[in-house]
Amino acid sequence: MEYRVTSLTVEQTRRWGKQLGGCLRGGDVVALLGDLGAGKTAFAQGVGEGLGVTEPMTSPTFTLIHEYITQLKATQVRLVHMDLYRLQRPEEAEVIGVEDAFVEDAICLIEWPEIVEDYLPDDRLEVEIIGSGEQPREIIFRAQHFDWELRLKEMT
């Protein structure tokens, strides 16, 4: 299933992320696709806001991984935000522990997931953001499993 929306501003992109954040639960993996400047980090910031992250979320481009602790239905959950743009080979995913974030007490957002495609769980949500600069963005949510389809319908 594909679900498409349009975002005219960075604030709208964050709001779509916030709406998705309200539907997420422990163990979820979200792959964020899009060119440089498409708004992946803005979308991730919205997800963090939707999950109740109170500290500022910045792009983990140079550190590769940032973690934030939040509460989800009275249970502590880690929001793991990865930016894999700088990885050169898929094997580097093992070194930095990408798969370690695919656990029930974590929600994982991965920017530039293409390099680690073989490591990603099948049950994930793909969010592609098309556009850059001052142009509107098209945000495409791609769900492979029925559970994601139900949650995406709740978003709208």
Description:
Helices cover 25% and strands 31% of the residues. It has 156 residues and is of the alpha/beta class. It is built from 4 helices and 7 strands. The protein has a 7-stranded mixed sheet with strand order 1-7-6-2-5-4-3. It has a single domain, classed as Rossmann fold (3-Layer(aba) Sandwich), CATH 3.40.50.300. The longest helix is centred in the N-terminal third of the chain and has 12 residues, at 10-21.
Helix-strand layout with pairing:
Blueprint (H helix, E strand, L loop, with lengths): L1 E6 L2 H12 L7 E6 L5 H12 L13 E8 L2 E9 L8 H5 L9 E6 L13 E6 L6 E7 L2 H10 L1
Parallel strand pairs: 2-5, 2-6, 4-5
Antiparallel strand pairs: 1-7, 3-4, 6-7
Helix pairs in contact: 1-2
CATH evolutionary superfamily: P-loop containing nucleotide triphosphate hydrolases
Number of continuous helical runs: 4
The amount of beta strand, in percent, is: 25-35%
Quickly give the CATH architecture: 3-Layer(aba) Sandwich
Overall strand count: 7
**What is the mean pLDDT?**
89
Helix amount, in percent?
Answer: 25-40%
| Strand adjacency order, main sheet | 1-7-6-2-5-4-3
Number of domains: 1
N-to-C order of helices and strands: EHEHEEHEEEH
Categorize the overall geometry: globular
Give the biggest beta sheet: 7 strands, mixed
Classify the fold: give the CATH topology. Answer: Rossmann fold
Terminal CA distance: 15 Å
Low-confidence stretches: none
Q: What is the highest CATH level, the class?
A: Alpha Beta
Structural class: alpha/beta
Radius of gyration based on Cα positions: 14 Å
